[in-house]
């Protein structure tokens, strides 16, 4: 499938496209909870994606929004609440009830071989995330992605070349321009983790994938929840797909002979 063969960080060393569980099995279980991650692991996923925020007292939690309001039974900004308060909140799901918000350190510890894509969703999360990742063996199984180039640069400066990062939106746009023939210089990221479209413009096509591979960059596409698009992306040669629909993605990979034994 034309996978890149240079600049290989251990997170990116797969020889076939990887399946990444977006916020765990988020279509079936309360997102970003241990139950959602456990379901993905039980299905056989070796990669998951999560987000992190820091509480007022500096505890890093696996949670997407800056507020509790959308998916839990409590309200408030996480950055203005202590961990003891956040720990009382329950993430709700129509199919599988209510689950606690996990600490990121608990996620790391629960599955020591699981590879984790993590997005620091606030500036306050960067320093505690760097501390969490700067532990023996952790950098090898984590990739950091963010919509903030400044956060990515801070993480790179703190943790050095052992850190795997994906591209922020500006670098994604640069790579897209490069795929259309414009010179854009070098990239510090090792992967382009991208949506199908950015700023209303199409991103992922064969030109984009081929140019990324020619520069030693892996291409992971998010968040894909239908079979037709999953199969089209595999035909384009992408290196990974993120999904909420974990059972569906497993079925598609299995049909294509890509699900790991």
Q: Give the CATH architecture.
A: Alpha-Beta Barrel
| Biggest beta-sheet profile | 9 strands, mixed
Name of the CATH class: Alpha Beta
Could you give the order of the helices and strands?
A: EHEEHEEHEHEHEHEEEHEHEH
Classify the secondary structure makeup into a structural class: alpha/beta
| Strands, total number | 13
Q: Which geometry do the CA atoms define? A: globular
CATH topology: TIM Barrel
Q: Kindly report the name of the CATH homologous superfamily.
A: Phosphatidylinositol (PI) phosphodiesterase
Describe, in plain words, how this protein is organized in 3D:
It contains nine helices and 13 strands. With 261 residues, it is of the alpha/beta class. The protein has a single domain (10-66, 102-255), classed as Phosphatidylinositol (PI) phosphodiesterase (TIM Barrel, Alpha-Beta Barrel). Strands 1, 2, 3, 6, 7, 8, 9, 12 and 13 form a nine-stranded mixed beta sheet that branches. Strand 1, helix 1 (34-43) and strand 2 form a beta-alpha-beta unit. Mean pLDDT is 95; it is low at 1-5.
């Amino acid at each position: 499938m034309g996978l890149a063969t240079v600049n290989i960080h251990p997170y990116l060393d797969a020889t076939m496209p990887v399946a990444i569980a977006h916020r765990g099995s988020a279509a079936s279980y309360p997102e970003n909870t241990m139950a959602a991650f456990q379901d993905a692991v039980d299905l056989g996923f070796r990669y998951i994606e999560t987000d992190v925020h820091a509480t007022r007292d500096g505890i890093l939690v696996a949670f997407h929004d800056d507020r509790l309001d959308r998916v839990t039974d409590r309200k408030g900004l996480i950055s203005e609440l202590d961990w003891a308060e956040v720990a009382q909140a329950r993430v709700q799901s129509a199919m599988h009830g209510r689950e606690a918000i996990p600490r990121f350190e608990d996620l790391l510890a629960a599955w020591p071989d699981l590879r984790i894509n993590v997005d620091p969703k606030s500036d306050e999360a960067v320093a505690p995330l760097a501390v969490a990742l700067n532990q023996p063996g952790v950098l090898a199984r984590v990739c950091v992605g963010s919509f903030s180039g400044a956060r990515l640069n801070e993480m790179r400066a703190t943790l050095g070349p052992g850190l795997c990062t994906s591209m922020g939106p500006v670098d994604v746009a640069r790579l897209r321009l490069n795929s259309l023939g414009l010179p854009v210089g070098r990239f510090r990221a090792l992967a382009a983790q991208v949506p199908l479209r950015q700023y209303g413009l199409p991103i992922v096509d064969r030109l984009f994938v081929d140019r990324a591979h020619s520069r030693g960059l892996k291409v992971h596409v998010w968040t894909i929840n239908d079979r037709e698009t999953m199969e089209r992306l595999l035909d384009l040669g992408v290196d990974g797909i993120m999904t909420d629909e974990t059972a569906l993605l497993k079925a598609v990979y299995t049909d294509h002979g890509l699900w790991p034994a």
